[in-house]
Specification:
The chain is mostly helical. The chain has helices spanning 2-34, 45-99, 107-130, 176-226, 230-266; strands spanning 132-133, 136-137, 152-157, 163-167. 75% of the residues lie in helices and 6% in strands. The strands form 2 sheets. A two-stranded antiparallel ribbon has the order 1-2. A two-stranded antiparallel ribbon has the order 3-4. α1 packs antiparallel against α5, α2 runs antiparallel to α3 (107-130) and α2 (45-99) runs antiparallel to α4 (176-226).
Length: 267
């Protein structure tokens, strides 16, 4: 009876070893097929928690990068619109300098310069009123009036007693020195705004680079925790296959031996 009991225990032991080899093979095959070392919480509970926390942090960093990139697109669109106005301001500066020599210019020439100046002011107003990014006005407070270039300074009465407004940007009768100072000041203001936008873009780009480095580091950590080692899993698979084969052979030999022993006892 004791011999039969030992035989049964050995049979169970060998079956257990075969079952363990089957589980090891299954796990190795799963990791090789998914490329992941952790496919469920039971594979590595602590590692799963750490990897999940890292993934949450990665998502937050990705969102911050997206927000910074969107802001840079907005700033770039704004700076691009301002660059057009800045070019117009340079042209307007040249016109006011040309108009400052009134004595050498005829009435027709002054009127032509005035028309050019008015066209520039209209262009600035048009850009300020229409430049948008995702439906949002980019230059809401940067029209000719806000820049101090379009305002009334006086009213003149003609021979019939009718009042006519005199605009500040009057190259024929206005104060050219004040006009030049106003244009120079407006041009400096536009360029200063552009410089501020450029500085913000640079800061955003710097923050994006830092966030990208952090993202790469965290992604590497998640990969180190979760990803399967291909060579290691191949080795585990081969080892499990060999152990299973040995277990199967041992079980077969054991059962054959037990059968012969029982036959001898029965004889």
């Amino acid at each position: 009876m004791q011999s039969i009991g030992m035989t049964s225990m050995m049979d169970l032991f060998l079956q257990g070893r075969i079952a363990a080899s089957d589980r090891a093979m299954k796990q190795a095959i799963e990791r090789l097929s998914t490329g992941k070392r952790i496919n469920r919480a039971s594979d590595d509970p602590a590692g799963m928690i750490v990897a999940t926390n890292f993934k949450t942090e990665i998502k937050e960093i990705e969102k911050s990068i997206e927000a910074a990139e969107r802001h840079n697109h907005y700033l770039a669109a704004k700076e691009g619109s301002l660059s057009v106005i800045a070019d117009m301001m340079i042209e307007l500066q040249g016109i006011t300098v040309q108009a400052s020599n009134r004595g050498a210019l005829g009435q027709g020439e002054l009127e032509a310069l005035q028309q050019q100046a008015n066209g520039i002011l209209d262009g600035i107003d048009f850009i300020a009123a229409t430049a948008r990014f995702n439906g949002e006005l980019l230059l809401e407070r940067l029209n000719a009036k806000d820049l101090g270039l379009r305002r009334l300074v006086a009213s003149d009465d003609d021979d019939e007693g009718e009042s006519h407004p005199r605009w500040f940007m009057d190259l024929q009768w206005g104060d050219l020195e004040a006009i030049q100072k106003a244009v120079d000041s407006a041009s400096s203001g536009v360029n200063l705004t552009r410089a501020g936008i450029g500085a913000m873009i640079q800061r955003n780009e710097s923050n994006i680079r830092l966030s990208m480095n952090q993202l790469e580091s965290l992604s590497s950590e998640v990969s180190r925790i979760e990803d399967a080692d291909y060579a290691e899993e191949i080795s585990k698979l081969v080892r499990a296959q060999v152990l299973r084969e040995v277990g199967m052979r041992s079980l077969m030999i054991h059962r054959e031996s037990a059968g012969r022993a029982l036959g001898l006892i029965g004889a």
